[in-house]
Amino acid sequence: MSKRTTRTPIAINAEPAPVAAGEFASWLGLTRHAQRQKTAGSDVPCGECNACCRSSYFIHLTPADTQAVKRIPKALLFPAPGLPKGNVLMGYNDKGQCPMLVENTCSIYAHRPQTCRDYDCRIYAATGIELSDAAQASIAERVANWRFAYPGEVDRKEHAAVLSTAAFLRERKAAFPPRSLPGNPAQLAILAIKVHRVFFDLGEQAGAKPADADIAKAVMAALEQFDVGAS
Ligand code: SF4
Ligand code: SF4
């Protein structure tokens, strides 16, 4: 989430201006690495944006977020439902803003929770998956402005594979076992990023496309491999 360096108010309804999102294949590699390492975080060129700090998110803090927990008033934290002791959530104020956002700046930026370090709204631009909550309209505006660069053929192929994967996950839910796909847009986008290789390889193959059920099995196998660090 955002590191605002000035206190200029954000013009949410300003004319959309393209924002460089980076080279696609590099971004994808770093994002996959961050998903594996869990603590690598994202390096998002947020600039003046702080939309995700104003989008009615509950921020999850784990027991590893000791520095953040020290700096957040206890009254703002409550136990995270269904998670082990030490996992807490921080809510938002009546404007949907994180209470640590002070004068448009994260007041604990150097010690912000891992959840904030990991957040990267480019996952939506990369996958074409849309944010579904009206409270996140400002993030959606930013997402619409991202422009990836494609310096090589691999960048275009990787992006085509991620888009095809996301489309399959959205449109072919029936090919998967019940409840095996996340309903949350962020988790669905991350899943597409984890398993895009299935569609990258399909794109390289000649001949008839496999049946949806076989693609779905390959997707689940790719996810398992990703999660054990084998892909
Ligand atoms: S919405 Fe995206 S660009 Fe804006 S602060 Fe959050 S991660 Fe950065
Ligand atoms: S702690 Fe709050 S203000 Fe700081 S980055 Fe996270 S969501 Fe934004």
- Fraction of residues in H or I helices: 40-55%
Give me the number of helical elements.
9
Which structural class fits the helix and strand makeup?
mainly alpha
Shape type: globular
Biggest sheet features: 3 strands, antiparallel
Quote the beta fraction: 5-15%
Radius of gyration computed on alpha carbons? 19 Å
Count of distinct strands: 7
Q: Could you characterize what this model shows?
A:
The chain is 41% helix and 10% strand. It is mainly alpha-helical. A three-stranded antiparallel beta sheet has the order 2-4-3. It has a two-stranded parallel sheet with strand order 1-7. Strand 3 (77-79) and strand 4 (88-90) form a beta hairpin. Helix 1 (24-37) packs across helix 6, helix 6 packs across helix 7 (185-195) and helix 6 packs across helix 8. The protein is globular and about 60 Å long. Residues 2-12 have low confidence and may be disordered.
